Amino acid sequence: MNQSEAELAIRNGVNVTRQRVLIAKAIIFSAATRSISSEELITRVLKANDISLPATVVIHESVDTASTVRTVIESLSWRLAASEAIWSLIHGGFLFPLSEARGNAPSIGWTTVIPGSGGMSAGWTFDEFVLPVPGQVRRAPSAKEGTDEFLSEPDLYMHSLGVANMHPDVASSFHEAVKCFRTELFTAALAMLGKASEGAWLELGASLLRIVPSSDEAKYSKQRGILEDPMMGPLRKVEAVLTVYDHQELFGPLAKACGVRLQDLRTVAIWSDAVRDSRNTIHFGVTPATLNTYEKLAALLIGAVPHVRMIYRVKEGADAL
Question: pTM of the prediction?
Answer without folding.
Answer: 0.65
